[in-house]
Amino acid sequence: MDPGLRRGERKGGVTRLGGRAYALALLVIILDQLSKFWVLEVFRLPERGSVELLPILSLSMVWNRGVSFGLFQADDAGRWILAAFSLGVAVMLALWARKADRPVLATALGLVIGGAIGNLIDRVRLGAVADFIDVSGLGFFPWVFNVADSAISVGVILLILDSLLPQARDSRRP
Fold first, then answer.
1. Looking at beta carbons, which pairs linking 161-166 to residues 24 or more positions away fall under 8 Å?
2. Does 149 participate in catalysis according to the annotation?
3. Which residues contact 75 (CB under 8 A, 6 or more apart)?
């Protein structure tokens, strides 16, 4: 092993866990885009409106032109600002992931990167994010979301969890 490399780091400066974060991000992007292709092109949800699958789960087509959960709806110029912001976040997190040395951190970063890029693809390609998973039947969650949104949400929760774990606190000490 090259003595100049940190534990778990490969040549090129990416840790093994960083590589796993990138692989997870790619998996999230693929699953997100495949699900959106199916909903839009195969199932043709926009033509059907809302389809109840279970009492608590429906497929409901919503075009999100804002940020998370439809907040701060954007016009056409805002679409590009949100796209640029998503790209910036994904790049910053990808740089962070290069040095990931904890499994929870790597998983969290991979999920958020993949979700951000999945929704970025929608903004650029479709002009808005395609949301379709509707669990409003639960009675307390009124928003419609997609695979990318789910990955981002779980990733953020894992980032918070990682920051609370003892090994995360230990790695921040001088």
1. 161/104, 161/108, 162/102, 162/104, 162/105, 162/108, 165/102, 165/104
2. yes
3. 65
Is 76 an annotated catalytic residue? Answer: no
Give the Cα separation of 81 and 147 in Å (integer): 22
- The whole-number pLDDT of residue 161 equals 96
Residue 69: its pLDDT value, please? 45
Give how far Cα 126 sits from Cα of 7, 68, 108, Å. Answer: 42, 17, 27
Phi, psi (deg, nearest 5) at residue 67: -95, -155
Choice among 32, 134, 149, 162 that is catalytic = 149
Give the residue, 128 or 73, on which the prediction is more confident. 128
List all residues 6 or more positions away from 56 whose beta carbon is below 8 Å from its beta carbon. 135, 137, 138
Q: Which of 131, 134, 162, 170 is catalytic?
A: 131
